[in-house]
Write a structure and sequence with these properties.
Helices cover about 70% and strands about 0% of the residues. The chain has about 190 residues and is mostly helical. The protein has 2 domains: about 5-60, Homeodomain-like (Arc Repressor Mutant, subunit A, Orthogonal Bundle), CATH 1.10.10.60; about 65-180, Tetracycline Repressor, domain 2 (Orthogonal Bundle). Helix 5 runs antiparallel to helix 10 (about 170-180). The longest helix has 24 residues, at about 5-30. The protein is globular. The N and C termini lie far apart (about 55 Å).
Length: about 190
């Protein structure tokens, strides 16, 4: 059944998108630190109060799809094909995220702006609890299982290493191979 979205929800989504689009365009053109929230609100033809109803802060304007990230992470674990381990599913999801992610201009904006770089890292790690729960559910472990929490934490933290590596596939294979086998001195 198709979900019917009401007019009010559509207007909210349109306003949110207009704000995020205006912010990104201004940030890419002039730099994050050179643009104020008042200017973003004006570009989207809304008040500053409305901007803050949709976004908790200036950094959040750049990362508009946070809910989608959590759904995709937990979906990678829950929807993995038969015979695919949780570790393999997470490796492939993170590799896909890194390779199909935003373009170079957007990544350059994030990497050149300490506030955005830190926000992106915190945003990604905010999904740790939901991912740990999904791993626990899928493996039959207790919801508060420390091994599931550790796997979630390490998998999420690995994204930054994989994205920054010259050969992301090789980095992912090495990192997730260690997670699968455990850490042994070699």
């Amino acid at each position: 059944m198709t979900e019917v979205i009401g007019r009010r929800e559509r207007k909210k989504a349109q306003t949110r998108k207009a704000l995020a689009d205006a912010a990104l365009e201004l940030f890419l053109r002039r730099g994050y630190d050179e643009v104020g929230v008042k200017e973003i609100a004006e570009a989207a033809d809304v008040s500053v109060t409305t901007l803050f109803k949709h976004f908790p802060g200036k950094e959040a304007l750049v990362f508009d799809l946070e809910e989608d990230i959590e759904a995709a992470l937990t979906g990678a674990v829950r929807g993995r094909p038969p015979g695919c381990t949780v570790v393999d599913a997470l490796r492939e999801h993170i590799l896909r995220d890194v390779s199909e992610g935003p373009g170079e201009e957007f990544v350059g904006l994030i990497e050149s702006t300490p506030a955005l770089r830190d926000y992106a890292r915190r945003m990604w790690m905010r999904h740790e609890t939901a991912l740990a729960r999904a791993i626990a559910e899928e493996t039959g472990a207790p919801e508060d299982d420390v091994a599931c929490a550790a796997l979630a934490k390490f998998a999420l933290a690995s994204r930054e290493l994989i994205a920054g590596h010259d050969d992301p596939r090789r980095a992912a294979e090495e990192i997730f191979g260690r997670l699968e086998r455990g850490w042994r001195a070699e």
